[in-house]
Amino acid sequence: MNEEAAKAELARLAALLAKANEAYHGQDAPEISDAEYDSLKRRNAEIEARFPALKRADSASEQVGAAPSEGFAKVKHAVRMLSLGNAFEEGDVAEFTGRVAKFLGIEESALSFTAEPKIDGLSLSLRYERGELVQAATRGDGETGENVTENARTIANIPQKLTGAPEVLEVRGEVYMRHDDFEALNVAQEARGAKTFANPRNAAAGSLRQLDATITRARPLAFFAYAWGEVSDPLADTQMKAILRLKDLGFETNPLTALCAGTDELIEHYNKIGTARPELPYDIDGVVYKVNDLALQERLGFRSTTPRWAVAHKFPAELAWTRLEAIDIQVGRTGALSPVARLVPVTVGGVVVSNATLHNEDYIKGRDNKGEDIRGGKDIRIGDLVQVYRAGDVIPKIADVDLSQRPESAVPYAFPTVCPECGSDAIREEGDAVRRCMGGLICPAQAVEKLKHFVSRKAFDIDGLGAKQIEMFYGDDQLPIREPADIFTLERRDADNLTKLKNREGWGARSAEKLFEAIDEKRKIGFARLLFALGIRHVGEQAGKLFANYYLSWEAFVNAVRAAEDESSAAWAELLNIDGVGEVMARALVTAFAQEYERESIERLVAELEIEDAEAVSSDSPVAGKTLVFTGALEKMTRAEAKARAESLGAKVSGSVSAKTDLLIAGPGAGSKAKKAAELGIETIDEDGWIALVAGL
Fold first, then answer.
1. Fewer CB within 10 Å, N- or C-terminus of the chain?
2. Residue 65: pLDDT band by 50, 70, 90 thresholds?
3. What integer is the mean pLDDT of 577-594?
4. C-alpha dihedral, 281 to 283 to 286 to 291, nearest 10°
5. Do residues 337 and 356 make contact, with C-beta atoms less than 8 angstroms apart?
6. What DSSP letter does each residue of 183-243 carry, written as one string?
7. Catalytic residue at 118?
């Protein structure tokens, strides 16, 4: 894979994983399997490792969960709730233990780990003050969750009061539903003519996130404690002792948690739990390993979204065989033509599935994006007997094709070269894994999907204007919404229109009034959220925040992007120098504002809005917002540990010295970097100076 192909693939993966995160964490309605999600994240990580300079601001490696629902009050976590990195093979586990030892600069034999079942439920944080339960919150996006305190109080095995606990204690764990309770709930739901749940995880998540706590009370939920957040006094000095302390305080902890001396014992316990898995009364999807010594956990610290001291060893997915009846093509907001397999319904792991993602034309042909064989090079044809897998209520992935069962009439699938929605050419650019419709906004599918994105929860999130309403208004001849600005002129146009919205089927005076009020409420919006809402290719939620934090005001941002149309300009160079911005993202941004129709559409929208500037980053840390470079041999900590510490204090760590470098930390053996820093007049300190600078922070 060359650099250009890597950029395109990282962009594709960012879009797929962002959509999957929102579906799983935000909507409790997964659209792809856990195994497929893990595979996509793994590929993303592999490409980023090979091309670190191409890492995107909206990379999945920088994201946790999804934004909290607007239906609940927000809770800012005192200590972030992060996700876990994954291990899939025994070799991955050995790599994890080796990586921990290398980071700490100690022998693997000096380490011990806990191993516990990974419960397939919904993460929950319980805050106790002076022994009283005062707050419960979901993970949300890791920084901010949903306040579900009243709902959590209804869960029988969550203590309302604690005796002997620290003054402040945040207990974290998983809300889940037992198999027998899940079956009984579905029987009751069916008897009432209500919606049944596909699996215990969705049932637990949906039950905890009810706006009416009386509904949650009627649902058979339970809670396993396995971690903690903010705590005024340490629970213990090891992970295992801390878990036992939580048990003594009255929390249910998992009895299968064990202490293991190294990789071999971790694998042995993984296999033991895997063997017991079919008989367990609840769902698990792997085993979590954690460094036992809490002092070492603190030294190891965190990456952007995962702790260095823990990893989840996932179980393989479940499989089933069925027939492929058809292949449909769906067109997304970026024009991407996405093939979807329509299957003869089949039960996989207790859930009936009838659709599968087929990714792109290479995948159908039996090749990956590097041109190498997958499934042994076997292509996928309509009529084939295919093997599918899933790990939850999700669209599965095709794992294999049984050629011995292929009908004689089956022919290779011809991927369309024109858009099925508008008839425009569908082009596959060099280095891109996806074929895209060139129709732009003349393509109804793209226009509608862009508008749906614009009003989605992480974008403008207009109450009463969802996907169905967008489809209705897009096709309306009297009161159309064809571009974002049309939303904010809707009330004025309705006043001038003889056929009022309130008189239409499905609407009334109050519902029309409420829609207009909801639209008006969203005229004031933050810079980052607006940029994300525009749906510019390669510019996701994290990229929106990145640009907002850098340029601060919308006006400064637009002026800079317009100036960057000349790729020989200082503005273009400055755009590329923003940490996390590569050429693909920068060019997509510049192109969007350079195209007359798109730029004018944005200008019409902006004229209707009040855009809030981003706030400048503030911190008590002396290195917050500064760019640091470490060079030479560090003797009192590993380079990785020093870098992690700097980033935790708000600094950016670079691998090279430039005019933008603020501080060089030079250990023994510093060479060309120290010389260049001296030439540029950059402040240089030694390791002791660095330790003194950040001491006590």
1. C
2. very low
3. 84
4. -70
5. no
6. HHHHHHHHHTTPPPPSSHHHHHHHHHT-SSHHHHHTS--EEEEEEEEEESS-S-SBHHHHH
7. yes
Q: How far is CA 220 from CA 155, 215, 574, in A?
A: 8, 10, 55
The amino acid that residue 546 corresponds to is L
Q: Which of 30-39, 60-69, 460-469 has the lowest mean pLDDT?
A: 60-69
Question: What total of structural domains would you count in the chain?
Answer: 3
pTM above 0.85, yes or no: no
Question: Tokens at residue 240, please?
Answer: 């295992």
DSSP string, 74-114: EEE-SS-----EEE-SHHHHHHHHHHHHHHHTS-GGG--EE
Write the CB contacts of 676 (distance below 8 Å, at least 6 apart in sequence): 657
Query: 24-34 pLDDT, tens per residue?
Result: 544 445 556 55
Q: In what order do the strands lie in the sheet with 627-631?
A: 652-654, 627-631, 663-666, 683-685
Nearest to 290 by CA among 268, 273, 306, 271: 306
Q: Hey, is 450 helix, strand or coil?
A: helix
Average pLDDT over residues 164-188: 93
User: What number of other Cβ atoms are within 10 A of residue 532's Cβ?
Assistant: 26
**Residue among 41, 118, 314, 452 flagged as catalytic:** 118
How far, in Å, CA of 66 to CA of 72, rounded?
Answer: 14
C-alpha span between 353 and 393 (Å, rounded): 8
Lowest mean pLDDT across 168-172, 327-331, 584-588: 584-588
**Of all helices (H) and strands (E), which one includes residue 263?**
helix 263-276
Domain harbouring 577, CATH code? 1.10.150.20
Element (H, E) at 266: helix 263-276
CATH number assigned to the domain comprising residue 246? 3.30.470.30
Residues 6+ apart with CB under 8 A from 102: 638, 640
Could you give the CA distance from residue 229 to residue 241 in angstroms, rounded to a whole number? 16
Same domain, 633 and 563: no
According to DSSP, the β-strands at 144-146 and 74-76 are: antiparallel
User: Is the separation of the CB atoms in 78 and 144 below 8 Å?
Assistant: no
CATH number (domain holding residue 664):
3.40.50.10190
Residue 592 shares a structural domain with residue 637: no
The pLDDT of residue 265: 96
C-alpha distances in Å from residue 461, one per residue of 71, 109, 352, 678: 11, 52, 32, 51
110 and 203 in a common domain: yes
Range of the domain at 586: 526-612
Same domain, 115 and 177: yes
Short-list 146, 147, 150, CA closest to 158 = 150
**Same domain, residue pair 155 and 284:** yes
